[in-house]
Amino acid sequence: MYQKYKNAELVKPSGIDLKDRLVGVQRVTKVTKGGRAFGFSAIVVVGDEAGVVGHGLGKSKDVASAIAKAVDDAKKNLVRIPIIKGTLPHEQKGKFGGARVNIIPAAPGTGVIAGGAVRTVLEAVGIHDVLSKSQGSSNPHNVVKATFDALLQLRDAKVIAKDRGISLEKVFNG
What we know:
The protein is of the alpha+beta class. The chain contains five helices and nine strands; from the N terminus they run E-E-E-E-H-E-E-E-E-H-E-H-H-H. Strands 1-5-4-3-2 form a five-stranded antiparallel sheet.
């Protein structure tokens, strides 16, 4: 699922205390010759609030099992996100479908300035100070995936130094 991100570090769910956060539940309808068949789809974000996060989608005839399936799906694709002092290493844009998300690091004490699905993902990751702007589509599925796109592109200074084959001091001082 995260093959296009070269620095995406996949994490196994065992031994991690994951908290699940419900992003949204939709009632979906399938029209058959016997009438309408109602079901539910749920999108959930799970995270340990210390840099590990994943998202999942579950579908079922009732809400509780749709959420349970979504949590199981989210635990299957957990990734580690670099966090520095409760915020991001750098500004990043992400996009998926019609949704565009811009996340910007903020000074300590700022809080999570984000709305809807973006806030849920950032809180699950464990980011405490961040500014964000969501543009385009407000569809929660696409906004969550756009936020993940932005988060998975983040790189901390150690990774950049290793990729360039230079010292950590040279990354900052040139």
